[in-house]
Amino acid sequence: MIAASKHHLELLTACVIYGTVGIFMEYLKDMSVGSIIFYRVLFGLSAILCYLAITGNLSQLALKKKKKYLLLLGILYVSQMFSYYSAIRYLGASSAVLLLYTDPVYLTFLAPALLGEKNTEKTIFALFLGLIGVFYVTRPEGGFEQIAFGSDYLKGVVFGLVGGLFSSGVIISVRYLRNEYNGLTQLVWQSVISLVFLSPFAVTLPGQVLVENLYTLMLFGVMITGIGAVFYIRGVAGVSAITGSILTLLEPVSCIFFDYTVLGSDVHSGMLIGCFFILAAAIVISLDNCVFLRKFIFGEKLASSIKLPFWKKELLRPQGK
């Protein structure tokens, strides 16, 4: 019981840390999205490598089979981060993180095509809930007619939705590589691959700008990619997929909380309504029936005979945002 509570706390702590992304983005000045991601990943990767060296686990980073899919994971990961952070720049963290959580909507379409899994009434219902949520999150208070073509708002919505699409690709790739590489190993290699693709942004960043933002970048990388990822992976390892899927919903909630309380961003009613529907869709897609919810609430063990399709299990986010 104590061990389970520890894993719950680790996972919740990681989600709260992930929710601070909007604060860091607000304090980083005169930097492009690509350069921010590069240095965040660089400092975070350094922290993880130090952690693995101290714990004597550097050997787990050895490359095995499916290397080209590891490369694909890295490409999808950097694409997802670039889209997500761009959405934050245009929309704010609250709307961006909710749009990122639309990946179950994409998986509802992708799973039958790529994985041969059939949609059920439950997945269709979750898709319906998710689409309603997207409608409310993306709808400005004045209505869609207020959105000008080429406006920052429209760009933010597009980046957010594309980020959700790339996130669904990351989820599928993570599962495919699961038997060859554990979560932390995947995180390290996808980070290395990201640094290669993002290096042009780092080269073109003026040295003075880097120095001015260095402390924030170091803290950003260590907190999100380092501490957050380690807590996340340790927590995920000790909970069921159902429990983990529900606990990770704290991330968008904490992101909205920090966005409102720390940054003073407006949280309109449509965002809250959309938040409810998107999170409801994530819960529905993670639960096979109401028995799961009862067992989650009362802490009963799940029957070993019950199996979820892997893409539902992988709604947990191992990439550390």
From TrEMBL:
Annotated Gene Ontology cellular component terms:
membrane
Top-level taxon: Archaea
Ranges for domain EamA come to: 11-138, 155-286
Q: Which Pfam families match?
A: EamA
List the InterPro entries hit by this protein, alphabetically. EamA_dom, EmrE-like
Instruction: Please list the coiled coil stretches.
Output: none
Keyword annotations of the record: Membrane, Transmembrane, Transmembrane helix
Q: Does the keyword Protein biosynthesis apply?
A: no
Q: Where are the transmembrane segments?
A: 7-25, 37-57, 69-87, 93-115, 122-138, 158-177, 184-202, 214-233, 245-263, 269-292
The UniProt record lists the keyword Transmembrane helix: yes
PANTHER family named among the record's database cross-references: ACYL-MALONYL CONDENSING ENZYME-RELATED, MOBA-LIKE NTP TRANSFERASE DOMAIN-CONTAINING PROTEIN
Protein's name in the database:
ABC transporter permease
- Species this protein is from: Methanosarcina mazei (Methanosarcina frisia)
Q: What lineage is on file?
A: Archaea, Methanobacteriati, Methanobacteriota, Stenosarchaea group, Methanomicrobia
